[in-house]
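so my prof wants the structure for this chain in the tokens format not the other one, which i didnt know existed until like an hour ago. anyway here's the sequence
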Amino acid sequence: MPHHTKFSHNWLNRTDTEGRNVNTWLKQGDSISTFKCTLCKTCDLDCSNQGWAAIVQHMKTKLHLENMPSLKNNSIISIESLKQPTSSTDGVISIPQLKLGNTKRPITFDFQEQVTKAEAVWALTVAQRGYSFNSRDEIGDVFRHMFPDSKIAQEFSMQSRKTSYVLSHGLGSYFHQELVKCLKRSVKFVLCFDEQTNNQDRHATAAILKTAIIDSLKADGLELNQLLMLGRDSPFINLSLENMIDNEMKKIGSGLLKLGGCHLHVAHNGFKAGLFSSDWNIQNKCIDIYSWFKQSPARKQDLIDTIDDYNCVMEKTMLYFANTRWVLLGKVITRVFILWEPLHEYFLVYLPVNQKVQVQNNDRYERIKETLTSYVIKIRLQFVLFLCENIFDRFLTLFQQEAPLIHVLHSELSSLYRLVLLQFLKTDYAGDKVGGCLLDLDFKLNEKQLNNKHIRIGEETRKLLNHLTQQEREKVFEDVKKIYHTTAEYLKKNLPLKNSFLSDVQILHPSYRSVEYSDEIVRIARAVPGLLSEREIDYSRDEWLIYSLDNNIDEKWYIKEKKKDCSGTELIIYHRIDYYWNKVLNITTANGFAKYPTLSKLIKNILIIPHGNADVERGFSINENLVPENRSKLSCLSINGLRSTYDGVKFIGNGSSHKVPINREIIKSIKMSYSLYKKDIQSKKKVSENSEKENIERQQAVEMCKQALQEEDELLLKQKTLQSELHEATSIIADASARLQLAIKQKDNLEIHRSTILIDGGNTKSKAVNEQLSKVTENLIQIQRKRKNNFGQQQQKRQKTLTEESIILN
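here's what i got, hopefully its the right format
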């Protein structure tokens, strides 16, 4: 075969060794002398030297042979149009023939299944939109009225109860099981969690959370050693939980990857620490203005009327400040400044004239009035806004994304801390430092501080300083420096800039594709507990070296777009990092095998590491939308079904219910939902009946116990009386015996006779009392034993009932 052979389209008319047309999987590559196998999902394979023989060689590879049955199962047979035989340049004759197409046969549903499909789409919409069940009771009638010619609409039936059990026992369960199947196929997974406090403003203990997590994994058949790390925020309870889970994993020879808490919280809390070092109380100024209008529609309307006099398109509402997201205070301040003139007019002109009584002796009004008239407060507001917009906003906006960003976390944290330092330190001291070197700086050195003229406070803030006295300006700069120092101190203490793992994973960025970073990939491989064997760690270095020199990696895999802004500066928009690595890790060798199997295993498990807890915290907003206050009667099963279905629509349907592919498993889950719902109702009824029966038996046992205790008290009283009588008889015998001894000495026969009678009487009495006392004691023992046995039986019944309830409810 001559060199530099071009791909021939006439090859597409050929068949393989089993008579199947190769055009079902063969196509030309990106260049004229390459080809691709769509079945094996290869990149460009070279045919410039061997020509058709290169394709034949690929057909014989193990991967291709393993994939051929799937092609056969999903193929249809079609007949090409009859054409006159033509000759090709390489002597191959093109003739009409049977052709195997790889078009996947669409799922066909019978009429009843089409109705179920429509009901499935509607149930998905209810979950995704957060519609209440009761509000959709007449939706079937609405559809029949809208589409009178639709047979499906005529059969459509989704009342509130059906919608409820379809979501709780059908779709919710289906999406949950699909997630579990996906996790079981994975080598590792990450569990991200967060919690809200209860009515007493308390969190669950670490021990309770540990038990809940481990039991949940067991219930779904997931192995604890699959857990790569816990994504969490920073409370000490969560740190204790992480240590508890890690200890459990160490018992089975595994462990957690520990990277600390959510770093977005660190940024918020660093900003908060800085503000709290001063006495500005900026957040309270904003809360006062918001609270003035919060519960009063009349006040809101008055403000809207005032705003309309200035600009009818201006924002007309105040923003609420949440004290868990401190940097968002900047958004609130921005709104205050947008409405500054209308607020000034409303509070300082309108209210004193039209609402005199309302503002008299009103502390909140006086505080708002001071905020709107004081240049000192306005400067403080402007400086806090400068901090938010110029230092923290970019970082927080970046890491609110759902895309994998673990590879840029270290550099961005480094940039954030350096940016804070550069606001008050000289550039030659901190400007060229990165990572852990920044933490080694002493930012309190007097000779490294910027003076009041050069310290960064923002241009708007600096302009407003002209309205202050010299003493007021000095106080502002004193507070600014204290805020900067406190913020820097908090960040220095809490940022993981000396974490070698976070530093090393930066090499996953395409710009680090170089042989000089082979040591870093080995350190990464060693750091992930229980993922790679020692041999695989060695392979990871070799594959990184091959990857570094791979000429098949296209720039288009990581650069999405290049464009220029209005000034002519080139802007580069990058693909997500998982898009890039998906391309790289799908590269195959000439024989169809994965080129980077070990890197694939390692990097896929690195990219699932969370860069913060924003995804989980967004879940609270989703939950509030799905379960508002007026849906408080929803069961846990319904809530879980709603949330599982919502997430299913988000990830499978890209957020649109009509884009979720309805397969036979979904149809089956909906059809089975009613029987599962009925079974669940019966099980709960049985639990209720058992509980009621147990309550009756418990009440009976209580009554029996009371009766036994009463009898026991009577016997104890009788025992005490008999013991007293026995003591009295014993005393008589002892006294009579003493008198008898004396009488014998004195030879007083009469006294001897009397003493003998007393002794005989005492013995008779003592014997009778002892017999009664023995019977009373025996009765006491029987009653106490019976009471103890009844208590034990009740405990066993209770434990048995709880176990049965747990089995039924799960």
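also thought this was worth mentioning. The CA atoms of residues 712 and 780 lie 6 Å apart.
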